[in-house]
Design a protein that fits this description.
The complex is a heterotrimer of chains A (107), B (151) and C (422). Chain A is built from no helices and eight strands. With 107 residues, chain A is an all-beta fold. Chain A has a single domain, classed as Immunoglobulin-like. Chain C contains 13 helices and seven strands. The two termini of chain C are 41 Å apart. Classes of the chains: A mainly beta (107), B alpha+beta (151), C mainly alpha (422). At the A-B interface, strand 5 and strand 6 of A face strand 6 and strand 7 of B.
C-alpha cells in the first residue's frame, strides 16, 4: 500500500476568506549527498516542484532543492472567492507527477 | 581568512544580505560564496532592503535533518503589487539553495513554511521579490545541535 | 501451548470460547480481551543470529559488561604513580578533548574554555575552564582521566585510560591542555552556554498526520489487520472491532508471561500471537511489527500506563530491571541510572538528559534524525551501542525486565503514540 499525501484544506469558507492549507507528501528526498554501505554516492532523487492551483489558476508553487527535508511539508494560504477544487501536484526528478485534489464550498 | 575586496562586495550586489566571509574555513567559504552568487542572480544585482522579512526557525535545531522554517513578508498582496517570490538559501550547506516560493494575488498572504535540512550551524537568508521588481531581505542564525554521545 | 493444544485444554478452552463469543457478540459487554491469548512459545521473536543494524557502529565490545553478561575488568584500586611534572602537547590535548570519535569527547560533559570552539558543550560535570588555577597536582589530573574510580568509586566519568580510549601520551597532552585553562569560556552565543540554555520542550502535535510521518504506519497497520496470514486468517478474523477491544490493553503492557517465563512487551507479543493465530511472520523490528506496535499503542492513547507491579513474578522482574538499570556496561562504563538518574536534567553536549518518567509513554516514536520509527527495544539497543556496549537481541529477557521497570516508573503517564522526537 503506498502512503497517501496528507492534505489539510477547510471544507467550507466564506467568500473572500483567507484559508490555510497544509500538505505532506511521503518521499525520501534523496539529496545526492549520501553514500551507501559500499561508499558509493546514492543518486539524487527529489521532488523538485510543488504546484497548487485553484479552479485551474495558479495559487502557490515551490521550486524545491535537496535541502528540503524528506516527506516534504508545505504550508501556505489562499483566498477563495468561489467554490471549487484545489489541485496539488508534486513533480519528481524522474518526471513522475503525483496529484491530489480537495474541494472547497464557498458560501 | 580571506577578506572581500570592495570590488568583490559591489560585484555581489547584495547590500542588505550580510553574509560574513571573515573567519570561515575553505568549505564554509565556498558555501557562503555560492549562497551570495545565488542571491545575486535572483536580484540581478539590485539592492535588497532588510527588515521586512521575518524568518521563523528554532534557535537550536534538535538535528539537521528536519528543521521547521517559516518565511513571511508583511506586505499587501493586491493584483497590482504583491510579493511574487521568496528565495531561501542556507549559507553553510554544500548546496546553499533551499527553495523558491512562488506567490500570486490568490495566495493572499506572502507567508509559507516547510522543513529543511541543515548540514551545520549557519545563516538562513531569505530574499523576496515583488511584482514591481523590488527586493527585500532578512536572515537568521540557526544552531544545529551537536549530539551527546558521539554517535 | 501449541496451536493444537488450545482445544485440548479443557476448562481453559471453555472460558476462551466464551470470551471469544462475548467479544464477537458486540463491543459492549466485555470490550477488553481478558483471556489467555494464543502464543507461539517455540523459537525466538527476532532474527537469529542477532545482527546489529546496518549503519550502527560495528564495534565488538564483548570484553565489557552487557545487560546479559558480566565481563568488565575490575577497577584499579589505587592511582598510578606519576614521577615528576607532566609535559605534553597542549595543542594536541585541546584537539583530543574535543574529538567526538573518541567516545563522545570531554565536551559532552564539561565546559573547557576554548576547546571545540565552546560549541554547545555539556554541563553534566564541573566546568573545567579554570582548572589550571585550581592547584591540582599533575598526578591527580592524570589519574582522574586515566580512571577516576580510584578517587571516586561512584563516578560517572568513563575510565578513559584503563578502558583503552587514550594512551598515556595522549592523556599527558590533555593534562598539558588542562593546565592552560585559567579563564572562563567565551561563548559565541548565549545558547552555547549550558547553564543558560533552556531545557527543550516538546510542543509538536505528534498525532497530527501532517506533523508526524509515523501516522502513516497507523494506516499501514489498519491494512495489515485485514491481511490474511499463512494460516488463512487475519487479525480481523477474531478481532472484529479493534477500536473497542484495545482501548486500554497497550497501557497494561509489558507483562510477565508464564508460558515463556519472561516479560513480554507489545512487540514480542505481536510476533508470537500473530504466528500462533494468523500464521503471519512479524518478527520484532520488522516494518510490520513496528506498524502493529504503533497501532496497538495508538488505540490505547489517553489511557494511563498501569502495569502489574504486585504479583510475585512482576515484583521479581521489576527488581531485576532495577538492578539492570544500575549495572555499568560497555567500554564507557555507564549505567542507565548514570545518565537518567545521577546526572539527569543536564546537557550532554547539545542534548538534554531526562529522567525515566516521561520517557516511555510516546513509544514507538518517529525519529526525525533517522526518518524511522523506533520501538522501546531498539531505543534500549542504541543506548547500549552508543556507550560502547554490545546490545542484546530485542526480545532478550533482560530488556523485558528493564521495560517493566521503566513502565512501572511511568505509572499514570498517558499514552500518546506515535511520538515524535529527535
Amino acid at each position: 500500500m503506498a502512503e497517501k499525501p496528507r492534505l489539510k484544506v477547510p471544507k467550507e469558507a466564506k467568500k473572500g476568506d483567507l484559508i490555510e492549507i497544509k500538505t505532506l507528501l511521503p518521499h525520501v528526498m534523496e539529496s545526492g549527498q549520501r553514500k551507501d554501505r559500499d561508499g558509493k554516492m546514492i543518486p539524487r532523487k527529489i521532488i523538485n516542484k510543488f504546484v497548487c492551483e485553484f479552479n485551474g489558476k495558479p495559487v502557490f508553487a515551490v521550486d524545491l532543492e535537496p535541502a528540503v527535508a524528506a516527506n516534504p511539508y508545505m504550508q501556505f494560504h489562499a483566498k477563495v472567492d468561489e467554490s471549487g477544487t484545489f489541485k496539488f501536484s508534486w513533480i519528481d526528478d524522474d518526471g513522475t507527477v503525483t496529484t491530489a485534489e480537495e474541494s472547497v464550498t464557498v458560501m | 581568512m580571506r577578506q572581500l575586496s570592495r570590488r568583490d562586495a559591489l560585484a555581489l550586489g547584495v547590500s542588505g544580505a550580510a553574509i560574513t566571509f571573515v573567519g570561515l574555513d575553505e568549505r564554509a567559504f565556498a558555501a557562503a560564496k555560492e549562497a551570495s552568487e545565488q542571491i545575486a542572480k535572483f536580484t540581478g544585482g539590485m539592492p535588497a532592503v532588510s527588515g521586512k522579512i521575518s524568518i521563523e526557525l528554532p534557535e537550536i535545531a534538535e538535528n539537521g535533518n528536519t528543521v521547521p522554517l517559516s518565511v513571511s513578508v508583511d506586505a499587501p498582496m493586491g493584483a497590482d503589487n504583491y510579493v511574487s517570490e521568496i528565495l531561501v538559501v542556507a549559507d553553510g550547506n554544500p548546496n546553499p539553495g533551499v527553495a523558491t516560493f512562488h506567490f500570486s494575488p490568490l495566495s493572499a498572504k506572502a507567508q509559507a513554511s516547510t522543513r529543511i535540512r541543515l548540514a551545520t550551524t549557519q545563516n538562513i537568508i531569505a530574499v523576496a521579490k515583488t511584482s514591481k521588481g523590488e527586493f527585500l531581505t532578512g536572515q537568521r542564525l540557526v544552531k544545529v545541535t551537536v549530539g551527546g554521545c558521539g554517535g | 501451548m501449541t496451536r493444537g493444544g488450545i482445544l485440548a485444554s479443557g476448562i481453559a478452552t471453555v472460558v476462551f470460547m466464551v470470551t471469544v463469543f462475548a467479544i464477537a457478540g458486540g463491543s459492549g459487554a466485555l470490550g477488553q480481551v481478558t483471556k489467555e491469548a494464543p502464543l507461539e512459545t517455540k523459537g525466538e521473536a527476532s532474527v537469529r543470529p542477532w545482527k546489529r543494524y546496518v549503519g550502527w557502529p560495528a564495534r565488538d565490545e564483548s570484553t565489557y559488561n552487557t545487560l546479559g553478561n558480566v565481563a568488565t575488568p575490575a577497577a584499579p584500586t589505587r592511582p598510578r604513580k606519576i614521577a615528576g611534572p607532566i609535559t605534553g602537547d597542549a595543542k594536541k590535548g585541546s584537539e583530543l578533548v574535543a574529538d567526538r570519535d573518541r567516545g563522545g569527547s570531554c565536551l559532552a560533559c564539561h565546559v573547557m574554555g576554548p576547546a571545540g570552539g565552546a560549541n554547545l558543550p555539556g554541563n553534566i560535570a564541573p566546568d573545567l575552564s579554570e582548572i589550571g588555577n585550581a592547584g591540582r597536582e599533575d598526578e591527580w589530573l592524570f589519574n582522574y582521566i586515566y580512571d577516576a574510580r580510584v578517587y571516586n568509586p561512584e563516578t560517572v566519568m568513563p575510565p578513559w585510560g584503563s578502558h583503552g580510549f587514550f594512551n598515556d601520551e595522549e592523556i599527558n597532552d590533555m593534562v598539558a591542555f588542562l593546565k592552560t585553562l585559567r579563564s572562563p569560556a567565551a561563548f559565541k552565543t548565549a545558547l552555547d552556554d549550558p547553564s543558560k540554555r533552556p531545557p527543550p520542550v516538546e510542543k509538536r502535535e505528534n498525532l497530527d498526520p501532517i506533523e508526524n510521518p509515523a501516522m502513516w504506519s497507523v494506516d499501514k497497520a489498519q491494512e495489515l489487520w485485514k491481511q490474511a496470514g499463512a494460516a488463512g486468517k487475519s487479525c480481523q478474523s477474531c478481532h472484529a472491532s479493534a477500536n473497542a477491544e484495545f482501548k486500554t490493553w497497550a497501557a497494561s503492557m509489558p507483562k510477565w508471561e508464564p508460558r515463556l517465563e519472561k516479560v513480554l512487551g507489545v512487540e514480542e507479543f505481536v510476533t508470537r500471537h500473530a504466528k500462533a493465530t494468523t500464521g503471519a511472520d512479524w518478527l520484532m523490528e520488522s516494518d510490520e511489527n513496528r506498524a502493529m506496535s504503533v497501532y496497538l499503542h495508538y488505540l490505547a492513547n489517553g489511557t494511563p500506563i498501569r502495569v502489574d507491579t504486585t504479583s510475585p513474578e512482576a515484583k521479581a522482574a521489576i527488581e531485576r530491571g532495577k538492578e539492570l538499570s544500575a549495572r555499568k556496561v560497555g567500554q564507557l562504563n555507564m549505567a542507565c541510572t548514570d545518565c537518567h538518574g545521577k546526572v539527569a536534567n543536564h546537557w550532554i553536549r547539545g542534548q538534554w538528559l531526562a529522567e525515566p518518567k516521561g520517557q516511555y509513554d510516546h513509544f514507538p516514536t518517529w525519529r526525525t534524525s533517522l526518518l524511522a520509527i523506533w520501538d522501546i527495544r531498539q531505543r534500549f539497543q542504541w543506548c547500549q551501542v552508543n556507550i560502547r556496549a554490545d546490545e542484546l537481541p530485542p526480545d532478550a529477557k533482560e530488556y523485558g525486565d528493564l521495560e517493566l521497570y521503566l513502565a512501572a516508573q511511568n505509572d499514570g503517564q498517558k499514552l500518546s503514540v506515535p511520538g515524535i522526537r529527535h
